[in-house]
Amino acid sequence: MSIAHSGRALAGTKLGKAEDHAPVLGSSLKTVPRSALKLGSHAKAKPWPCPPPRVVADPGTGSGRHSSAAPSIIDKLDSMSNIVQSPGLKPSASKMSPMDGCEATATVAYELSDVTFIYPITPSTPMGEYADQWASDGKINAFGNVMSVTEMESETGAAGALHGALAAGSLCTTFTCSQGLLLMIPNMYKIAGELMPCVIHVTARSLARHALSIFGDHQDVMAVRQVGWNMLCSNSVQEAQDMALISHLATLRCSIPVVHFFDGFRTSHEINKITTIDPADIKQLISQPIYQAAIRHHHERALNPTHPHQRGTAQGPDVYFQSVEAAEPFYAAAPAAIIAAMEEVGELTGRQYKPYDYVGHPEAERVIIMMGSGCTTVEEATNVMVAEGQKVGLLKVRMFRPWSAEHFLSALPTTVDKICVMDRTKEPGALADPLYLDVVATVGQMEMLAHSTKRTIIVGGRYGLSSKEFTPSMAIAIYDNLKLKDPRNKFTIGIVDDVMNSHLPYTEGFNGVPVGTSQCMFWGMGSDGTVGANKEAIKIIADNTDLYTQAYFFYDAHKSGGVTVSHLRFGPTPIGSSYLVEQADYMAVNHMSYMQKYDVMSKLAPGGVLVLNSIFTDIDQLEAFLPDKVKRDIAKSKAQVYVIDALTVAKNVGLGKRVNMVMQLSNVLPIERAITLLKKSIVKAYSKKGPAVVAMNHAAVDDSVAQLKKLEIPAHWANLETAVVSPTPAAKAGSYSSKMQFIEELDVSGFVPPGTTVIERRAIASTIPVWKADACTQCNICSYICPHAAIRPFLATDDELVGAPESFNVLQARGPGLGGYKYRLQVSPMDCTGCQLCVHVCPDNALVDKPIAAVGSIEDTHWTFATQEIPERNDVLDRASVKGSQLQKPLLEFSGACEGCGETPYVKLLTQLFGERLIIANATGCSSIWGGSAPSNPYTTNSDGFGPAWANSLFEDNAQFGLGIAMATVQRRKTLQRHVVEALDESSEDVMKAVRAEKDSHAKMDQLAHESDLFLKPSIWIVGGDGWAYDIGFGGLDHVMSTGEDVNILILDTEMYSNTGGQKSKSTPLGAVTKFAAGGKTRPKKDMGGMAMSYGDVYVASTCLQSNFGQAVKAMAEAEKYNGVSIMINYAPCVMHGIEGGMCNALDDAKEATETGYWPLYRYDPSIVEDGKKHRFMLDSKKLKGDLEHLLHHENRFAILDRKDPATADRLHRDLSDMNIERLERFKGLAAGTGANPRLAMEQIEVLQKKDNLPVGDEDDEHHTPITGPVTERPVGPGGSTVKKGGFAKPSHFT
Questions:
Q1: Across the beta sheet with 1048-1053, what order do the strands follow?
Q2: pTM of the model
Q3: More confident residue, 691 or 950
């Protein structure tokens, strides 16, 4: 039969001759692949990596057979049987070092890879950062090369490039997780199908479902279990290093790519003292003949014109099925390859690994099966229970794919009666979760084939989603569940499931931490440096003592100013306790407000040391400040209490509010030695920030020793009476009740009501601005610039001021139509972050910083009166002005953004101009975290209940998501228009109110009432950062710009991936040092504005709100009014820029950026009809002044290269200056009318095309649309004005 036929004969197509194939592990669980080789001392199956046999159709029978042109798998294996291992590995002397899981993994990946393609995604990003840094430093790997490190525009791009590099014969790796891993799935199928050796290291993380979560579980890796990759799991930092090496060796042995995964954050970011593998030992391993031959074979399979072949073809039903099945021998032999790699690493390190490792009683009757960091927790509980005589055990799954029933059953005790399989994922609608299903199928098949009358009871549970805490106490509850005659199945643990009541109860209090281990907790605040300082401290202890160490860090959802808790352990034996410290021997609380907000004393062990950072440094002051319950807990716990005014110490030495080094000294080392080592670590940690920063930290250490003071606790504190805490505190009453109810009763869809940040009242500022009325000119600039909407102007009549606090002073309001009002400027002390931007920007020196302890109470009283007793005034001044905009209530307030954030003022202004009809499609990034971390919703409503509707889909699809919102809104409003065309001649708002009032009078009116929320035309804005706009989302952004639809795009340009720690984006400027550009960026910034203007009918604005207040307001108003696509590119100073003196100087920095031409201000308005006087391009920053070099030296992202490589810095800075000057001259020409018309640009392109004999404007198929065309007229904006366009036809939607 011809291979072109597709008759019934093809249904039985064979794979080939039986003798061409090795037996595959089958249901008997006893056969061993013929392809096994006994190599060296291991005597294990080691399949030779080779191309899959080519399967062709027999022209006579239609059956598939192996081509005689290529040797069969067995032929190839037999020909290589003479390759043996080296007689013995000679490991180097072992060395112990503290590191986290990312560094441990990246160390191995760097040694064994030629190339990597990376893209930032938390928490895998540090692995790429390490690789980039080492490559920048010229580090040589095991192959004698510096690894090639390339940042891509997305994980899709990274996977595609990875595939290409493998096809070209390189050994490749990458690092990713979560949605990033999902974007790689199509290429993962291809790489596996082509049997290419490769490793992807995954910090297993939650997937974005109803909400995004950056924390760890196994949802992402379970979503790729079907793609054909081997999957190996690490349970600890030590294992992350060792299993990384095993993964790279195993993939070479079997030609099947490997996903090596470990738990995000719990393993990836835990610092632990591990025994490192020397690079020389890795080189010794990879130099063995079997690996050298494997690498050579990979090279021989590469795409190369000297030995050409074709891959990636299209196959039909004649051979596709057979080709898929022909790869099965590779998978059947994979377990033996992995075991061989495990044994090699065991021989080298002394640490033995198996695909399935059992620990516990040898005759266990109750067994827990799981994988990941939870295994170390269960192992602690298991060890204690076995010591008590209980027959329990833990089976740790290291090899999830391929799943080997044979090896699994050989590891499982034959005495087991009951099994609990714990999954760290959830598959809604499935029979059960993945690991459970594999275990049930394996045990059930074994019992069925053995005709056994015994039936092992197997139940499943779910734990630890999104890094939910999992403790030894929970492990004991799981074991206890197995004691029951009918153990509970499909349960959850670690939560209270009051919906389905699936939760398993447990009792806390079990302590499985190794004897002799000391535990510490440091309560800090995001951005105060506490976490960084603790990382240095744990490394000091690890490197300078024989103690084992562990450090883990808890963060809340705020970008800055949120709670951080550092959990540190150190002791004489290895520490595997993968859960938070529950009873600390030493506790430092860096912010006194935490003593009132959180039950910190419940975590201090009896007799423990408590160090408080407080302005109250004597016992009387402290007694007046602390709540009675805290004082009683301190006394009853017999805590040793020390106090220090760390803020004053830090300020005295020039560190501002960064108290981390002041609070760092503990009782771990003798004080003299601790100081010496701490100073050395400061040099290492902060030298990149310059000698001044190092000197200030040294001074802080010296001063802190002198200022630390021990307090004697009064005995009567132990007898203080404390009131019972009410389950319904006053904060739940009144206007806050629905928001508190939401926080307690989560919405299953992840929907969040507006304005929940109003109840947070974090009180994180040490000083706050206080208004000096006599100096104020009522410009409202302080409010305009405030990132958190914590300072606002208020207008009140005399009647409204009746009952105001006596100290609530006011001024006569200035401005047209304001004669009947009094003016007041007020700060919210509980919501201010203390960034001092308002103090710095005030042109009248009308704001002065004062300690919150001195003025917080009275200013809070003022704020309460102003916000609750003075009505909103939204119609007294034109809101499209700086002063008028700030009289509108900001509908973005008290967000979780960093203090001094440069992004929030733009979005806050957006809500003040259009908030009551605003829809925001927000890309994942900084703006989605400070703007959408449940339950904190900073988007609120006006007095009518109207406010921004906000949504986030993903990182990569935000432009398309926003376009979908726009198109759906247009379509729904068309339906409404059809229902009530005649009513639209009236005021939309009046019609809406009338319809709602009469909705019960008639069915038609009821229908209109249902649709009445569409009477007001929404203002739709697509918002995101430069990482989204310039990189991962640019394809979608470009498509949206091409549609001509009436949508607006707001780019918050920090010039780096701020949300993931400051990695390079295509917006990063020339010469800047960022993560993924450790040697300074050598390519210029993408010209997003120029690309947008090339369409001709897109409104484009480049703004810097901090340097030109009026231009930003004007551009935003014009962009919204424009009937078409508008895009605003907004410079957003960021803490990651390293601005000298801190973010309070961001205004000066932004102004200098504009004046030097670094960030030009312009607007391009296609609605303008050019007549020689008016031009579509308007340059709003026309002159250069100041010195660009001065600006660059005051930002650490540029200055760091100056210190590291002055010659390169000088060259790149000169090039940047030259480009800025050239750009300004070009912009001046556009502003004068030269080249401003896109048709003129097209004529220039046509001249070039003709010169090069290229076709001009004649494409007319589905892929190409001619740019030239007839001049048409289309409506622009609600005013009915028109603009002539060349070939830019655009739909018009009613307004």
A1: 949-951, 918-922, 1019-1025, 1048-1053, 1126-1131, 1099-1103, 1162-1164, 1177-1179
A2: 0.85
A3: 950
- The greatest distance separating any two alpha carbons of the chain, rounded to the nearest whole angstrom, comes to 103
In 3-state terms the chain splits into helix, strand, coil percentages (rounded to 5) of 40, 15, 45
For 1023, counting Cβ atoms within 10 Å of its Cβ (0-12 exposed, 13-18 middle, 19+ buried), the class is buried
1057, pLDDT greater than 90: yes
738 burial via Cβ count (<10 Å: 0-12, 13-18, 19+): exposed
CA atoms within 13 A on the CB side of 823: 24
- Distance in angstroms (rounded) separating the CA atoms of residues 386 and 382: 6
Distance of CA 516 to the CA centre of its chain: 36
Give whole-number Cα distances, 742 to 36, 229, 738, in Å. 60, 42, 6
Beta bridge partners, 1178, equal 1163
- Among 898, 1257, 1198, smallest CA distance to 1071 is for 1198
CA dist., res. 614 & res. 593, Å (int) = 9
Phi-psi map region of 626: left, alpha, beta (phi>0 left; psi -120 to 50 alpha): beta
The tens digit of pLDDT for each residue in 55-97 reads 333 333 334 333 333 333 334 334 433 444 445 667 777 899 9
**pLDDT beyond 90 at 734:** no
Cβ count within 10 A of residue 745 = 8
Cis peptide before 402 (omega within 30 of 0): yes
Q: 3-state SS of 1143-1203? A: HHHHHHHHHHHHHCCCCCCEEECCCCCCCCCCCCEEECCCCCCCCHHHHHHCEHHHHHHHH
- Kindly list the catalytic residues: 122, 155, 205, 1059
CA separation for the pair 137, 307 (Å, rounded): 36
What residues contact 164, with CB distance under 8 A and at least 6 apart? none
Q: For tokens 């790729």, name the residue.
A: 224
CB neighbour class for 620 (10 Å; exposed up to 12, middle 13-18, buried from 19) = exposed
**Where are the extended beta strands (E) located within 415-498?**
418-423, 457-463, 491-493
Residue 495, Cβ neighbours under 10 Å: how many?
A: 14
- Report the candidate in 827, 832, 932, 816 with the shortest Cα–Cα distance to residue 876: 816
939, 931 Cβ separation under 8 angstroms: yes
293 pLDDT higher than 60: yes
Give the Cα separation of 1041 and 1129 in Å (integer). Answer: 14
Q: How far is CA 29 from CA 23, 406, 551, in A?
A: 11, 5, 43
Question: Tell me: the pLDDT tens digits for 1106-1146?
Answer: 999 999 999 999 999 999 999 999 999 999 999 998 899 99
Q: Using CA atoms, how far apart are residues 388 and 244, in angstroms rounded to an integer?
A: 36
As a whole number of Å, the end-to-end CA separation of the chain is 66
The answer to whether the beta carbons of residues 381 and 368 sit under 8 Å apart is no
Q: What tens digit of pLDDT does each residue of 1198-1239 get?
A: 999 999 899 999 999 999 999 999 999 999 999 988 754 444
- Taking a C-beta distance cutoff of 8 angstroms, is the pair 549, 542 a contact? yes
Q: Which of 862, 872, 851 is nearest to 810 (CA)?
A: 862
Burial status of residue 880 (CB atoms within 10 A of its CB: 0-12, 13-18, 19 or more): middle
| SS3 call for 141 | coil
Three-state SS string over 1037-1049 comes to HHHHHHHCCCCEE
Q: Could you tell me which residues are beta bridge partners of residue 274?
A: 97
Rounded distance, CA 1225 to CA 1234, Å? 11
Task: Compare 13 and 123 and report the one with higher pLDDT.
Answer: 123
Instruction: Please list, residue by residue across 343-357, b when 16 or more beta carbons sit within 10 angstroms of its beta carbon and e when fewer do.
Output: bbbbbbbeeebbbbb
Q: How far apart are CA 598 and CA 771, in angstroms?
A: 31
CB-neighbour burial class of residue 59 (10 A; exposed 0-12, middle 13-18, buried 19+): exposed
